[in-house]
């Protein structure tokens, strides 16, 4: 449950799937995006969770693909959430860059830009049986999803 130290190529793939669209977003933020009212405690949870997720997803080899079993369904579900996350970004970049479009749900999932990667990381932590990623995903989830729910409420 603690994890086996070693490089995770699956973790690197997930981080690239996360970082590439976020880097593009930083140059294409919603025209009405305002971070001045973000809750500082939620922001702290988000930053700590980001650091912990980034470290734990890379340094434990337990996330790498193993022999297929029923347990592999955790990895498949996690990866499908990351694919849906990429679809979310394609939808955002090909439409109007507004907060309303940015926070629009996908497949009934609210604040998908925050929810999807957090859920994917949580399921990946379960697949790898690594408590550090599970805990990190919960921490980032509190901050990241919390902040985005506040933004969503502000535009309604």
- Categorize the overall geometry: globular
Order of helices and strands: HHHHHH
| Helical residue percent band | 55-70%
Mean pLDDT reading:
95
Which structural category fits the helices and strands? mainly alpha
Give the count of structural domains.
Answer: 1
Give me the count of strands. 0
How many DSSP helices?
6
Main sheet properties: none
What's the end-to-end separation, in Å?
A: 42 Å
Which percent band covers the strand fraction? under 5%
Care to give the gist of this entry?
With 156 residues, this protein is mostly helical. The chain has helices at residues 9-26, 40-59, 72-93, 99-102, 112-128, 131-155.
How does this model look, in words?
The protein has 156 residues and is mostly helical. It has one domain. The protein contains 6 helices and no strands. The chain has helices at residues 9-26, 40-59, 72-93, 99-102, 112-128, 131-155. The protein starts with 8 loop residues before the first helix and ends with a helix. The relative contact order is 0.21.
Task: Give the SSE map.
Blueprint: H1 9-26, H2 40-59, H3 72-93, H4 99-102, H5 112-128, H6 131-155
Helix pairs in contact: 1-2, 1-3, 2-6, 3-5, 5-6
Provide tags for this entry.
156 residues; mainly alpha; 68% helix
